[in-house]
């Protein structure tokens, strides 16, 4: 498997396109600029199988409807945020004047527990990493040595917790109990900014020292 990072939208949220050698793909957090994202996927002749959402804040879901309608694919979201896609107060779009109020259909697939998930040929582990939001999850691809951490853990920082449902103590517990115990060389692919590694964050992240 290989992955491509595409920063999208005004807040430059990282969307990730994961693909195998047969051109099958998963899309993580299609935040905005649907036309740009769709063109990238079409130009590379990929076949998306699903959309994975680390959480339902507006900057991670802006292109969700065009993408899932384009390929008639399901979106996966944690059950604790099942009503956020249709609620601008909870998804935050009501509080950011640069975007319209987002009111989307509910996710087709709701995740209610940790564990191994398989979508087509892709196998990965769901880790619940709440704190930035109540239903924040991370997607761990053990064989490929990468975890897509959403807005839980960043390169040199952690997610904000001043939005609806945020809890800094819970976020720090999630990072220390779920993310930092991963193998030292694991790549952390965050929702914003540059990739990092578990080792680097253990050793240099000022919020974790």
Automatic annotation (TrEMBL):
<keyword id="KW-0378">Hydrolase</keyword>
<dbReference type="GO" id="GO:0016787">
    <property type="term" value="F:hydrolase activity"/>
</dbReference>
<dbReference type="Pfam" id="PF00753">
    <property type="entry name" value="Lactamase_B"/>
</dbReference>
<dbReference type="InterPro" id="IPR036866">
    <property type="entry name" value="RibonucZ/Hydroxyglut_hydro"/>
</dbReference>
<feature type="domain" description="Metallo-beta-lactamase">
    <location>
        <begin position="12"/>
        <end position="192"/>
    </location>
</feature>
<protein>
    <submittedName>
        <fullName>Glyoxylase-like metal-dependent hydrolase (Beta-lactamase superfamily II)</fullName>
    </submittedName>
</protein>
<keyword id="KW-0479">Metal-binding</keyword>
<keyword id="KW-0862">Zinc</keyword>
<dbReference type="InterPro" id="IPR051453">
    <property type="entry name" value="MBL_Glyoxalase_II"/>
</dbReference>
<dbReference type="InterPro" id="IPR001279">
    <property type="entry name" value="Metallo-B-lactamas"/>
</dbReference>
<dbReference type="GO" id="GO:0046872">
    <property type="term" value="F:metal ion binding"/>
</dbReference>
């Amino acid at each position: 498997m290989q992955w491509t990072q595409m920063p999208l939208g005004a807040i430059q949220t990282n969307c990730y396109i994961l693909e195998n050698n047969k051109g099958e793909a998963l899309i993580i957090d299609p935040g905005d600029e649907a036309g740009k994202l769709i063109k990238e996927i079409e130009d590379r002749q990929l076949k998306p199988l699903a959309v994975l959402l680390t959480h339902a804040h507006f900057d991670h879901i802006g292109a969700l409807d065009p993408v899932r309608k384009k390929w008639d694919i399901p979106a996966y979201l944690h059950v604790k945020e099942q009503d956020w896609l249709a609620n601008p107060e909870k998804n935050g779009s009501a509080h950011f004047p640069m975007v319209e109020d987002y009111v989307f259909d509910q996710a087709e697939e709701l995740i209610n527990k940790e564990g191994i998930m398989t979508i087509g040929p892709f196998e990965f582990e769901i880790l619940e990493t709440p704190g930035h939001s109540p239903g924040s999850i991370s997607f761990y691809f053990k064989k490929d040595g990468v975890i897509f951490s959403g807005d839980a853990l960043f390169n040199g920082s952690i997610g904000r917790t001043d939005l609806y449902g945020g809890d800094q103590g819970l976020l720090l517990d999630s990072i220390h109990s779920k993310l930092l115990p991963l193998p030292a060389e694991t790549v952390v692919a965050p929702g914003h900014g540059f990739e990092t590694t578990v080792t680097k964050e253990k050793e240099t992240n000022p919020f974790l020292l």
